[in-house]
Amino acid sequence: MKSFDVAVWRDGKLRMLDQRKLPHEEVYLEYDSAAATARGIRDMVVRGAPAIGCATAFGVAVEARRIAAQDIPASWPAAMAPGLKALHDSRPTAVNLRWALERMTPLLTSTAPERVPDRLLEEAQAILREDHASCQAMGHHGAAVLPQVDGRPLTIMTHCNAGALATGGVFGTALGVIRGAVVAGRRIRVISCETRPFLQGARLTAWELLQDGIDTTLITDNMAGHLMGKGLIDVVVVGADRVAANGDAANKIGTYTHAVLARRHNIPFMVAAPLSTIDLQAPDGSHIPIEERPAMEVTHLGGQRVAADGVAVLNPAFDVTPAELITWFACERGVVREPNRDKIAALLP
Amino acid sequence: MKSFDVAVWRDGKLRMLDQRKLPHEEVYLEYDSAAATARGIRDMVVRGAPAIGCATAFGVAVEARRIAAQDIPASWPAAMAPGLKALHDSRPTAVNLRWALERMTPLLTSTAPERVPDRLLEEAQAILREDHASCQAMGHHGAAVLPQVDGRPLTIMTHCNAGALATGGVFGTALGVIRGAVVAGRRIRVISCETRPFLQGARLTAWELLQDGIDTTLITDNMAGHLMGKGLIDVVVVGADRVAANGDAANKIGTYTHAVLARRHNIPFMVAAPLSTIDLQAPDGSHIPIEERPAMEVTHLGGQRVAADGVAVLNPAFDVTPAELITWFACERGVVREPNRDKIAALLP
Question: What percent of chain B has pLDDT over 70?
């Protein structure tokens, strides 16, 4: 399976594949401060909750290196505060961003001042390595519970891109489950929903799966119900940007609709996400902030206006799927059937 | 309310607004044969079931005029056969096409041969006039049953374009109901789903409603579930391309998904279509042919490729909403609650 430089350390800088340019161009951008990294996250150079977590960790590391290049500061927390705030405020829904900051920040005070830049980089590298291992474990666990079908490929529908490109560049979460099934020798056919407005399904999921030779068919998001009604979808597998304490899962806009459709057609619905996506501070999905993104993402495509002039626009980037519509929650520790508050709590250390 | 030259007779030819160019350019094309008209229908210069019915009728009229310009044929049915077949085969789902042919064809034999061209044109003009009256009646009837809300505008979600542009250029079907409500003094807010892949909602519905000063907000199709979950949609109103004898309704791909979502959220779901859309030969929705359109409509936008190279594509242009998900069927004769076989039969003469 191919891997990607989603967010990696290269020559003392954070290097990220510019996902806005895919699938047409493979362009890599370099970041040497937290503020620049925060802009990259906000502008969706990198996207996908676990990938944002990795980029945030490297953004913290590169900021410390930038500061130390002048002098070791009297107070690391004070010197880092503006950069940490810029990262924290870059995007509101993916909790992995906050999780990465909470993991990096204590090192500013628990480490000898001159060791801080190296220690932060070690931690960011550890987060990236753990993400790779987590995606592969999740892929294995998730694949093991996928339905059996006879004499034909198992057809898995997915939404947005919860792939290698949405994580540390290896396997992915939802696409990790698909890759886990392929590795286990299953015949798989993927239906990729294009995922308006940003077209992550058409641009990213199709691109990365085809590179691994996985049979992939593109549909517009509004075709899912029709295909389910025709019996053409065996299971739905998606990622998550934040999972509340009761198992409600925020994910790319449109996910909730697919979950409602899956329930009507008795199709199992799997959410695959690492434990770092779980937010125990959110008792349920209503406490997850939903980012509203610029109208131009809806009215324009490739810089070209498609919608009538003067029309108002709503552009919520995520929605919440209630736990009751989720058949399985797959993570690096295993698969939970019909997630709820107790089962989610039991997954955490 | 503004009207549009969707399909009109002008200087001995059929003139149609090229809807593929909207909202950027208002270009009118002229047709002087049935074959050319059939290509215009296939290529979606004109679209929308009632509009296709009007265009078909004028396509028959213009074909007779073309033939008579050389000589009155020995057999009108024989002379017209290739043109009628081209029209018949242009698009498979909208039954108004077949309905218009069935209304025009008997005139070839029941009329004195030299009178045929004039008689066909009279009939086409009658079809257009009846469409205008039908949309206005349907709009009035449909508007009368819309829910009452206090202290805020009634929010109506619609899908695709079932407007003046989808009919004879006046009022429309689903948008006719919206216009009927506006005419009746109701405060209305419209949520227009963009309707991938052809973007009829973004390009056409927004364009025509804004010209009438109706408050219109654009969303991507996959946002509907999220908005319904937030309580932001009061009612869904859509058109239909073919209604089966039991009330199952084929309409633009994505409609079925909206109906499933509406049921989950206890939101009433209205289908507005003229009686010419009812096909008693289709006992239920499974007998309605669903057109599969070219992959390029999904992979490209404005001539520009958006999807990853080499990905397979499905592009069904319609889906079927079962009658059990339809709260009201509105037509020119009135509104039927919870349509079924008996209630649909009772609507027809």
Answer: 100
Write out the residue range of the structural domain in which residue A35 sits.
7-133
B226 interface with A at CB cutoff 8 Å: yes
pTM of the model: 0.96
Is B158 in the same domain as B97? no
Tens digits of per-residue pLDDT, B291-341?
Answer: 999 999 999 987 789 999 999 999 999 999 999 999 999 999 999 999 999
Structural domain count of chain B: 2
Q: Is residue B122 domain-shared with residue B12, that is, in the same domain?
A: yes
Q: For the segment A126-160, what is each residue's pLDDT rounded down to a tens digit?
A: 999 999 999 999 999 999 999 999 999 999 999 99
Distance from CA of A148 to the nearest CA of B (A): 24
- What is the distance between the alpha carbons of residues B276 and B287, in angstroms, rounded to a whole number? 17
CA distance A213 to A7: 24
Nearest to B23 among A216, A264, A308 (CB): A308
Q: What's the ipTM?
A: 0.95
Would you give the end-to-end CA distance of chain B in angstroms? 31
Give Cα separations from B214 to A271, A295, B150, B211 (angstroms): 40, 19, 19, 8
Same domain as B314, residue B169: yes
List the catalytic residue out of A234, A241, A248, A279. A241
Could you say which of B84, B116, B133 is where a domain stops? Answer: B133
User: Residue A212's domain is classified under what CATH number?
Assistant: 3.40.50.10470
Residue A118 lies in a domain: yes
Contact: B210, A254; criterion CB under 8 Å: no
User: Same structural domain for residues A72 and A175?
Assistant: no
The CA distance from B13 to A238, in Å, is 53
- Note whether A257 contacts B256, CB cutoff 8 Å: no
Q: What is the DSSP letter of B292?
A: B
Q: Kind and range of the H or E element at A13?
A: strand A13-17
For residue A296, give both structure tokens. Answer: 């131009």
Q: Residue B289 falls within a domain, yes or no?
A: yes
Rounded to whole angstroms, the Cα distance separating A102 from B27 reads: 58
pLDDT of residue B302: 74
Whether residue B2 lies inside any domain: the answer is: no
Residues 6+ apart with CB under 8 A from B123: B57, B61, B103, B104, B107
* B146 and B207 housed in the same domain: yes
Residue at a domain's end among A112, A133, A154: A133
- Euclidean distance between CA atoms B172 and B180, whole angstroms: 10
Q: Are residues B151 and B26 in the same domain?
A: no
Strand, helix or coil for residue B274: coil
Looking at the DSSP bridge assignments, the partners of residue A321 are A249
Q: Which of B131, B241, B248, B279 is catalytic?
A: B241
- The tens digit of pLDDT for each residue in A61-84 reads 999 999 999 999 999 999 999 999
Question: What does the alpha-carbon distance between residue A140 and residue A35 come to, in Å, rounded to a whole number?
Answer: 37
Residues B97 and B126 in one domain: yes
Q: What is the pLDDT of residue A302?
A: 74
A224 CB neighbours in chain B (<8 A) are 257
Q: Is the CB of B298 less than 8 angstroms away from the CB of A227?
A: no
Residue A78 neighbours by CB under 8 Å, 6+ apart? none
pLDDT of amino acid A242: 96
- A208 and A331 belong to one structural domain: yes
Tokens 């029941």 belong to B110
Q: What is the nearest CA distance from A205 to chain B, expressed in angstroms?
A: 9
CATH number, domain containing residue A14: 1.20.120.420
What confidence tens digit (pLDDT) does each residue in A247-275 have? Answer: 999 999 999 999 999 999 999 999 999 99
User: ∠ CA B74-B80-B85 to the nearest 5 degrees?
Assistant: 150
Which amino acid belongs to residue B32? D
Chains A and B form CB pairs within 8 A to the count of: 195
